[in-house]
Design goal:
Shape: elongated
Distance between the termini: 42 Å
Largest sheet: 8 strands, mixed
Number of helices: 24
Radius of gyration: 34 Å
Structural class: alpha+beta
Helix content: 40-55%
């Protein structure tokens, strides 16, 4: 131990003598380890993390996809992952292989609730609430943090309405007040008792940036959310997750559940006739691991995270090559020292141990710095990936496993290349080494050092090309003509249903909102609709045009008021738009977009005056206008057929009570103002609160911000690839500079002799630059074909880009070449400034 401490102290002294070298290696290690740890922390949390529940390995999900959210109709491929409540009860009753089988609402993030604690001074908040079966917490094996959790008795029609609050909400909104338990909250204007607090760290059955704040029994959904489909056997809206008993074989269980599913679906009229029977025969359930819960975010981010893993791995490889080069340069520079120590009697094993200690000390220092970089990097990633999330369940603490891997790899590199010079010295005769000293007019960097520089240059080019392609893809997305106008537009998401409005009250509510917002000075248009362009929402149905019974296609629809098209900047190209005369009592009309006309009227012709409707009644609506193809949901969704219906109109063939028509509820208000208004958000909240205190703002954004949100993931990838490309370029530049500077130092005497014999400064600079240029050219020669071949692996993540075009490739080559010239020019100018007399005097 005494000898080890002596070695450590000596190593620290040696590293302090060369601060530039020490700082460079530490920063390289920190950047390499930190970048990888940040990316892998996100990967580990999003892709590999299990739910914080008891024994997640025994949880099984019924289904293998994330279809959402409220669906009716059949599945063409027969693959079911979304179920109706009666089907859930049927599966639960007949599956003793499960210890418990729980149902959860599939699309709770699209249906926020309004919650307010009982009391005169409390304020209503729009929050996430999830409806779950009574055995939900028991299935997951959870215990309450306080109070109790939901039980089967809570999930019955006659039970008092209860809810469980999340731990984070309890702490952040109510400061852990124990009196919350047992108190009354008004959920969607209905009295609900909070019976307990969910365990700390529990974020629900899926990873999401908007986790539930309240958990409510499924049986209360009809009353609280005013939805008609909770017990409808033809409407699928729940996911099912269960815990299997020990020893249960999944393949036989999967076949049994598929048979039970077909048995539950058989009575439905959707499966009548030959086509229906064929679809019923294909119906099946695939069992998948449920330990990670509903993998919605995982599927959304998986491909991009895998890409970032590869990119960060390349950066780490470049960093390791850089460290190797730096250590080789330093080690070779100490060759005479090691030979002298050997000549004085030092054992070679002792010298190797000392060098090993220096490498370990250096790696430990770099690893500690890497922890700070990783923590800051993960924070940055979270802000880029979830810019508006206040309660994201992903934390910035770096993964210890990932840090250990990246640090171990860098440590191994440091050890190998730190000891290499000692091995070289060990095989040389000390007398020969000392006799030659510095009297050399040749030599310089070794072949291994040059090879490492070439490797860095080639990998840097690959990353620079990737950064250029993703930046170009993002630019194409953002500059697409979306056929809308976002200037001076504001989007206010609302939830009249949660505020307690019935369908029969909506027409008066919408008129009141139009009048109140028009009374605000500067407001030009007030659009009201289910949803708006470039938001994560879509309503769709099957449509038939009268006279074309064989053509049934899917199309998206929006319910909107008369000012909606003007408010979002959509232009009418034929006929008219929705008018103020299109009330609930007026003849039903519809406006279609150009993509709809192309899909349904392929033979041309004027669509104005034609009628369309649903398959059982194709003549419900008269087409009165055609609008241009405004982009909804995603720029990548091409040929998006849409139709627009006056907000309060219903199909004449729809005989269901108006109370069952959920499409009448507006989800957004679009305000167009004559100028930017900084106080428009506060005016909006005051206006809605004056209409009804429970009519809270679910989300307020400028139209520009809403559009920008749809490119968050692409922006994250573009920025990170650019960052990693710049980091790789910096490391490669440092590597090339180090080798070139080392070569100049080794050839100082030679350069002095050349200049003493009359060599010009220009020829010396050219001689030094020649080596740097050759290494860079070799790196380019290797990197260009690699970059071209790698494009095919990422082209699915690029928008309208299938190959590395000349602009990106030339830009990357010029960038790398410029950096290489700068790295070579600095030592080259230093070499040209050598005083021949001083250089020769050192001999």
């Amino acid at each position: 131990m005494t000898t080890l401490m002596q070695d450590v102290r000596y190593a620290i002294r040696q590293l302090r003598k060369t601060p530039a070298f020490t700082i460079t290696v530490m920063l390289t290690l920190a950047l390499g380890i930190g970048a990888n740890a940040a990316i892998f922390t996100l990967v580990n949390t999003v892709l590999l993390r299990n739910l914080p529940v008891a024994d997640p390995k025994t949880l099984i999900r019924l289904g293998d996809n994330n279809n959402c959210c409220v669906n009716s109709g059949t599945s063409d491929d027969g693959d079911y992952a979304l179920f109706s409540t009666p089907t859930y009860y049927e599966l639960k009753k007949n599956s003793p292989e499960f210890e418990d089988l729980a149902a959860v609402e599939s699309g709770f993030s699209y249906r926020p609730i309004i919650a307010r604690r009982d009391g005169a001074q409390t304020v209503a908040r729009s929050v996430m609430g999830e409806f779950v079966s009574g055995n939900y917490f028991r299935t997951l094996g959870l215990q309450p943090n306080a109070g109790r959790l939901l039980v089967d008795a809570d999930d019955s029609k006659s039970a008092p309405m209860t809810a469980v609050m999340s731990y984070d909400t309890w702490q952040h909104e109510f400061a852990g007040d124990a009196s919350v338990i047992g108190s009354t909250f008004w959920i969607n204007t209905k009295a609900v008792t909070i019976v307990g607090i969910a365990p700390k760290g529990f974020f629900g059955d899926r990873l999401t940036s908007t986790p539930p704040e309240y958990y409510l029994p499924i049986e209360t959904m009809t009353v609280l959310a005013s939805v008609p489909y909770v017990h409808d056997p033809d409407v699928q809206w729940v996911y099912i997750i269960g815990r299997v008993k020990p020893g249960v074989q999944l393949i036989p269980l999967q076949e049994k559940l598929s048979a039970l599913l077909r048995q539950a679906l058989a009575p439905s009229k959707m499966f009548n006739g030959d086509k229906g029977k064929a679809l019923l025969a294909k119906a099946h359930i695939k069992l998948t691991p449920g330990g990670a819960g509903i993998r919605q975010m995982q599927e959304e981010y998986e491909s991009h995270l895998h890409l970032l893993m590869w990119i960060s791995g390349l950066v780490l490889l470049i960093a390791c090559a850089n460290i190797a080069n730096l250590l080789l340069v330093r080690g070779m520079g100490r060759k005479a020292e090691m030979s002298l120590r050997t000549a004085l009697g030092a054992m070679r094993s002792r010298i190797i141990r000392q060098l090993l200690t220096e490498s370990i000390v250096l790696s430990l220092a770099g690893g500690i710095a890497g922890l700070a970089v990783a923590y800051a990097g993960t924070h940055m990633l979270l802000m880029l990936a979830f810019p508006d999330a206040d309660n994201v369940t992903i934390h910035a603490s770096p993964s210890l496993e990932v840090i250990g891997f990246a640090f171990g790899l860098s440590l191994l590199t440091g050890i190998l290349f730190g000891v290499a010079p000692a091995w070289i010295t060990a095989h040389a005769q000390p007398a020969d080494v000392l006799r030659t000293g510095s009297r050399t007019t040749s030599g310089g960097a070794t072949l291994l050092q040059r090879a490492l520089v070439v490797l860095q240059a080639s990998l840097s080019l690959v990353l620079l090309v990737g950064a250029g392609l993703f930046a170009q893809s993002l630019n194409k997305l953002q500059s697409s003509d979306m056929k809308l106008d976002s200037r001076n537009r504001y989007i206010i998401h609302i939830n009249p249903q949660a505020a307690g409005y019935s369908q029969t009250q909506l027409e008066a509510l919408y008129r009141t909102m139009e009048e109140r917002f028009h009374a605000i000075p500067g407001v030009l248009k007030v659009g009201i609709s289910n949803y708006t362009p470039m938001e994560d929402n879509n309503w769709g149905s099957g449509i038939v045009v009268q006279g074309q019974p064989d053509v049934q296609l899917g199309a998206s629809f929006i319910k909107a008021n008369a000012e909606y098209f003007d408010s979002v900047g959509t232009h009418v190209v034929m006929g008219r738009g929705i008018g103020v005369q299109d009330t609930s009592s007026a003849p039903p009309v519809v406006v279609v977009n150009q993509a709809f006309v192309k899909a349904f009227f392929k033979n041309g012709g004027n669509p104005i005056g034609r009628r369309l409707g649903y398959p059982h009644s194709p003549g419900d609506f008269e087409i009165v206008g055609v609008v241009e193809d405004t982009t909804y949901t995603s720029v990548q969704w091409k040929n998006h057929a849409m139709y627009f219906v006056p907000i309060m109109q219903r199909a004449p063939s729809d005989k269901d009570p108006i109370e069952n028509d959920m499409s009448l509820y507006a989800g957004a208000i679009v305000l167009q103002t004559e100028r930017p208004m900084n106080d428009i958000e506060s005016l909006t909240r005051k206006t809605l609160s004056a209409i009804n205190p429970n009519l809270t703002v679910v989300k307020f954004q400028t139209f520009d911000a809403q559009i920008a949100d749809r490119f968050t993931e692409e922006r994250l990838i573009a920025r990170l690839t650019t960052l990693f490309g710049a980091l790789a370029l910096l490391l490669a530049t440092i590597g090339l500079y180090g080798v070139t500077a080392y070569t100049v130092a080794r050839r100082t005497s030679e350069i002095g002799i050349r200049m003493a014999l009359g060599a010009a400064r220009g020829s010396v600079i050219a001689m030094v630059m020649r080596g740097a240029v050759i290494q860079t050219v070799l790196g380019l020669a290797i990197g260009v074909p690699i970059a071209l071949s790698c494009v095919r692996f990422v082209k699915t993540q690029l928008y309208e880009i299938t190959s590395a075009n000349s602009t990106v490739m030339i830009g990357a080559i010029i960038t790398l070449a410029t950096a290489a010239c700068i790295a070579g020019m600095i030592p080259a100018r230093r070499a040209a400034s050598i005083d021949p007399a001083k250089a020769l005097r050192t001999e």
